[in-house]
Amino acid sequence: MAVRMRKKSLFLLLVLIGAELLVQTAYFGVRPAHAVTWSPGIGLTPLGSIEEKPYVMEDSHSTLWVAYDSNRLGNWTIWMRQFNGVSWLPEQQLTNSTSNGLTPALAQLNNGNVMLVYTSDKSGNFSLYYKTYASGVWSSPSRLTTPQGRDSTPSLVQLRNGTVMMYWTRESLSGSVVRYVQYKSYNNGVWSKEAQFSTGGSEEEPSVYQTDDGTIWVLYAANRYGNLDIFYKTYNGAWSSEIRLTTNTADDHQSWLTQDLNGVLWEFWTRCVPISGGSCEDDVFYVTSTNLGATWSAEVQFTVDPTGNTIYDSHPAAIHYDRDKMMYVFWGTDLTGPGADFDVWLRTSTPMPIHHVSLSNATKSPASLMEAGTVKVNFTANNPGDYKENVTVNGYYQSQNSFLFKSTTTSIMPGTSAFMEMNWNTSRVVPANYTVFLYAIPVPGESIRLLGDNTAVAGNVTVQRVPSDINGDGKVNVVDLAMVALKYGISIGPEDINHDCRVDVVDLAIVAIHYGTKVGDPNWYAPADIDGNNVVNVIDLARVAIKYGTSLLNVPEDVNHDCAVSVLDLATVAINYGFGT
């Protein structure tokens, strides 16, 4: 039986093109490991062509995106399927050039757009290109790299700070085969200059990931001891030294690191397992770590061929899906057409119990009230996880800064919800427009990737100033009395004919309408006679004109709004003295 040989000098992207035919009909089996049982598996791609090198990501709506390359059209193109938690959606073609497009990578950006990076020979040698998906439309591709050699196998991660990091393989074209891992970053629509990450000359097929503690991991295959092994470096303020993960004498490559929602690291890779005749077949293996890489479990062979059969399995990609709590593992395999029909397959684990709390249905009432009034806030606290949780919810009001107004704790059983309410007493609150929101403090063991629904916004509330709080600081004290005293005696005067606390065109118009009248005339209007000489004349017009624009509308010291700061205003403040303190 002919088998596929891994030749290190072959260009990474086209390694399947020279694959030899394998002839068999077989049932595919896996071994249970790490307290999980794996499903029988399903194929996601059509028969009769090659589809492989899957790459998976989950977007902010909990939809899985799985991209892969395919030769169904005669050249290599990028395709994708999405899973919405219920069903797999039909395939979508992401590249349509007559040139080749392979080794896709996906990441969602801070603005919600999705980025696709892949390698293509549309400009001659293989270079990296990218395009973005926004508002239901993919952009045209843009070239990212212009290597002298060939670039392939990009890996993307969006860091918590919004930066997208990309690592990839660069391979020389002439002389001996030399490969390095390169990297560059993307921020606010701008790509950085590229730089070389590795230095040995045999590094390839990187995988980049950021764990819940913020550490950045870069894994890759390298030939340090006569064969390819998996190595990694980590960054948490400074880069670690290179750490060897696998020590088998067979070639290990095509690394994929992920972290489940309990914090366990899962590292998958492809191993070219020796078989008879001096050849080898590729199978997928994995290890796990419950302590962020301080120690690793024993190796587990994820793909196991039936006795007497040789199946090629490669390019694993995995993610712990928060909707059903299962680990989803994708890989390329020729199970359905040995040596010719490679497809993307999927197996899922049994659900892994997780810690998770969330908030929903937050409301508030009323939307506007005076200082010292009470806002009623209602919400639902949920436990979609698998353990009984003591959930503490903090209520905040926010304008320029956030302030805690209430904290409450309740116990919620797994899979249930609790209706809760809290009151916000606005005493001592500075009058302003506020946003009221709630935050469920993460429970022990809750992944940072699940915290998006720990916050719920109840809405906006306007806290209005009580008249005696002259400086609007939420209390009535000696400062307010002093402010009234400083403006004591201010009055807008008789020029404010209509008593709206301002002298404006309306007052001028009233004088003009009654201009020339005197006491006893049919249209006599006494307020227009400002100087009280029993006739409305130019002097009255002049007095209004002189005070034109004067206003006490926005003078808080005029507490009773009678257009004068008087003893009545002092008395009102004195009566309310001590409010809010």
Treating each run of at least 4 consecutive H or I residues as one helix, how many helices? 4
Structural class label: mainly beta
The average pLDDT value, as a whole number, equals 91
Poorly predicted tracts of residues = 1-34
What's the N-to-C terminus distance?
89 Å
Rg, rounded, reads 36 Å
Describe the structure.
There is one protein chain. With 581 residues, this protein is mainly beta. The protein has three domains: 32-320 and 336-348, Tachylectin-2, Chain A (5 Propeller), CATH 2.115.10; 358-464, Immunoglobulins (Immunoglobulin-like, Sandwich), CATH 2.60.40; 478-575, Dockerin domain (Type 1 dockerin domain, Orthogonal Bundle), CATH 1.10.1330.10. It is built from four helices and 34 strands. It has helices at residues 478-486, 505-513, 538-546, 567-575; strands at residues 42-43, 51-58, 64-70, 77-83, 92-93, 101-108, 114-120, 127-134, 137-138, 142-143, 150-158, 164-171, 179-187, 190-191, 195-196, 204-210, 216-223, 228-235, 243-244, 251-259, 265-274, 280-289, 300-301, 313-320, 327-337, 341-348, 358-365, 368-370, 374-382, 389-398, 402-412, 417-425, 432-440, 455-464. Strands 6, 7, 8, 9 and 10 form a five-stranded antiparallel β-sheet that branches. Strands 11, 12, 13, 14 and 15 form a five-stranded antiparallel β-sheet that branches. The chain has a five-stranded mixed β-sheet with strand order 28-34-33-30-31, with no helix packed on it. A hairpin with a 7-residue loop joins β18 (228-235) and β19 (243-244). The termini are far apart. The model is unreliable at 1-34 (pLDDT under 50).
